[in-house]
Amino acid sequence: MNLEKRMRDNMGDHSHGSPDDSGTVAKAGQGSLEKFQDPGLPPHRKRLADTDPRAEKRAERQVALLFIISIIGTLSFFIAYFVLGRPENISQIRLQNSMLGLGTTFAMLGIGVGIVHWAKTLMPDHEISELRHEIRPEADRQEAEEIINTVLEETGIKRRPLIRNTLIGAIALAPIPAIFMFRDLDRTGKNANAMVDQLRHTMWDTGVKLVRDPSGTPIKAADVQIGSVFHVIPDGLDKAEDVLNEKAKAVVLLMRLDPNKLKVSPGREDWNYDGIVAYSKICTHVGCPVALYEQQTHHLLCPCHQSTFDLTQECKVIFGPAGRPLAQLPITVDSEGFLVARSDFHEPVGPSYWERG
């Protein structure tokens, strides 16, 4: 008994087994909670450019060099766009596209990286804390003006003419390529509807034979089996003045289905020949080439954004972002059994545009 009493005296009386009596659980109000002290801002660590004038000058030259790279990129775009002109073969097309892409990339990248490098090496990097205060219109205006002046002062743009001038040059030149590209959409310059007319009409016309791409071999209706697909261009395309542009508008897909599966709209009864149909290969979303045909489902698929067209329903859009069916080319056969066009497309091919009727 004496031993048990001594143990209770040393460990406390836990005979009831309750946390309230044992003291093992803290209760509200017991003890005092110490408040966390505001640690404040960390000590400011100066950069090399803040203490070494040579490092500061070197950073300034680096920023200017990045802006100059942007200017060179824009000039490279101009060279590719105007000097190379209109390429005539695939090698020139690849060269021009590469120069246009790289020029635009360096034009944008030089400005972006230059501004980031400027901010990280030359602009003040100290942290500040500002208390919220009541907004007063006049005081707010004055404060905004003060902030702008402070920003101009901290950037050093007034006292760093090399950075200022190269930045102005890079920003001034960067948008010009876009302006020329939009302006050059109408290459003829004859009238406001010239580009619309170019998109509305193709080389297809009454009696023009359907020939295989790229061999130029005419196609007989008897050669087109159910489930087969032909990539087709108009006969005489190789003699066109602008082969690439004409082909981009006129290329079609030729397929044959069971005529009983075709759902033909009124007025289009003679647009197909015994289940053989021809549709523009240009997707109505953004103009990618539609090239995948699912024989079992009779679906045409655009690989760019997965727009899906139902061939049995006159290429109606059943999935994806495309907004309209593919344009259908009316076809028939001539006296020799070769497939020929009845006319041009009855609507402009490809994506939508403002003037499209």
Supply the key terms.
Rieske Iron-sulfur Protein, 2 domains, 4-stranded antiparallel β-sheet, 10 helices, 11% strand, elongated, transmembrane, disulfide bond
Description:
There is one protein chain. The protein is 38% helix and 11% strand. The chain is an alpha+beta fold. The protein folds into 2 domains: 48-127 and 138-183; 197-341, 3-layer Sandwich (Rieske Iron-sulfur Protein). The strands form 3 sheets. Strands 1-2-3-4 form a 4-stranded antiparallel beta sheet. The chain has a 4-stranded antiparallel beta sheet with strand order 5-6-7-8, with no helix packed on it. Strand 5 (292-294) and strand 6 (299-301) form a beta hairpin. Helix 4 runs antiparallel to helix 5. The model has no long low-confidence stretch (mean pLDDT 83). Keywords: 2Fe-2S, Cell membrane, Disulfide bond, Electron transport, Iron, Iron-sulfur, Membrane, Metal-binding, Oxidoreductase, Respiratory chain, Transmembrane, Transmembrane helix, Transport. It is a multi-pass membrane protein. It is found in: Cell membrane.
